[in-house]
Write a structure and sequence with these properties.
With 322 residues, the chain is mainly α. It folds into two domains: 158 residues, no CATH class; 163 residues, no CATH class. The protein is built from ten helices and no strands. Helix 1 packs antiparallel against helix 5, helix 1 runs antiparallel to helix 10 and helix 4 runs antiparallel to helix 5. The longest helix is centred in the N-terminal third of the chain and has 30 residues. It is flat and about 65 Å long. It starts with a helix and ends with a helix.
Length: 322
């Protein structure tokens, strides 16, 4: 069990790194930094010499080679692939040490899901950043992180227990609301709508700006030659961005109730942790708008979203644990 705990914790930490690298790749518009998969312009890693660069551009003349975009894409791919190796080791450990059936199933599902993530990575490139595929791939990163975390919790013998079983429904609602909010955040990034509103708390000087929800939330829109920088008009992007904002407000209200109930249920450490992570996430979201999406703040926004998800999962794990 200790081997499983150690591997799952390492995988959890690496999954955070993969999410950060995925955000970095997305934010520097390097999603097509390598137009092929799993290689990069036909190379195992990105080309560096003049001869290799010339060969790369001959192979893909429609995608001029930019090393500053190839690097994030290649690094993201290989670090993500290492997660698959950890998942294999987890499966081997679960069966070798004859762990409970539920852990064998969990480790096997984790490996299967990471393989699916690799396939979605291939589709992301081959389908030229199709929004639905990119959203699934990015959202899948959060699911992978959650699976590693759940496996870590399941392999930990001693978990601090609180008498908060009466908060099951509220904790579940908070988790569902957060999942929806993360999806909206991913959809915002996928459709390049993060800067659709450049003022706060209003959007284009209004609390009810012109919005096109039918196109903004069309899951099957055309991608043209590729979807780099997006194809939606401004009103559709505003609809996505503003939905993410409104949803954040609703999620904050739900979490405020949960935090208050946890505090008065003698679970102050959980309440405090949840509150600090929530406030940090809200602050980063506002800073993204005010300071026009600085790279490191935007990456931090992704990572703190992941931390908020794990904290909420921890609350649910304790609440629902028999």
């Amino acid at each position: 069990m200790s081997m499983l705990k150690g591997l799952s914790f390492f995988g959890l930490c690496l999954a955070f790194v993969v999410i950060a690298l995925g955000a970095w790749t997305r934010l520097v518009d390097a999603g097509l930094g390598c137009p092929d998969w799993p290689g990069c312009y036909g190379f195992v890693v990105f080309p560096t010499s003049e001869v290799d660069v010339l060969l790369a551009e001959q192979r893909y003349p429609q995608f001029p080679y930019e090393i500053n975009k190839a690097i994030p894409e290649v690094v993201h791919r290989y670090v993500a692939a290492f997660l698959g190796l950890i998942a294999i080791l987890l499966v081997v450990s679960a069966f070798k040490y004859k762990l409970p059936l539920r852990l064998k199933k969990l480790t096997s599902f984790l490996l299967f899901f990471i393989c699916c993530q690799g396939f979605f990575g291939y589709l992301t490139v081959s389908l030229k950043l199709l929004p639905l595929i990119v959203t699934g791939h990015l959202f899948g990163g959060f699911i992978t992180l959650s699976l590693f975390f759940y496996l870590y919790l399941s392999s930990t013998k001693k978990i601090i227990s609180y008498q908060i079983g009466h908060l099951k429904l509220l904790a579940a609602i908070a988790l569902i609301a957060l999942i929806v909010q993360i999806f909206l955040g991913v959809w915002t990034s996928t459709n390049y709508a993060s800067l659709a509103c450049l003022d706060f708390p209003t959007c284009h000087g209004s609390f009810l700006p012109e919005m096109d929800f039918s196109n903004g939330f069309n899951l099957f829109q055309e991608v043209g030659p590729n979807y780099l920088f997006g194809l939606l008009d401004n009103e559709a992007r505003v609809a996505i961005h503003y939905s993410h904002r409104v949803s954040a407000l609703l999620v904050s209200c739900i979490f405020a109730v949960l935090i208050t109930r946890l505090w008065f249920s003698n679970a102050a450490p959980l309440a405090s942790t949840l509150g600090v992570v929530l406030v940090t996430q809200i602050s980063l979201g506002i800073m993204n708008v005010v300071y026009v999406l600085p790279l490191y703040i935007a990456i931090a926004h992704n990572l703190v979203a992941a931390a908020l998800l794990l904290t909420t999962l921890m609350v649910n794990f304790i609440v629902w644990k028999k």
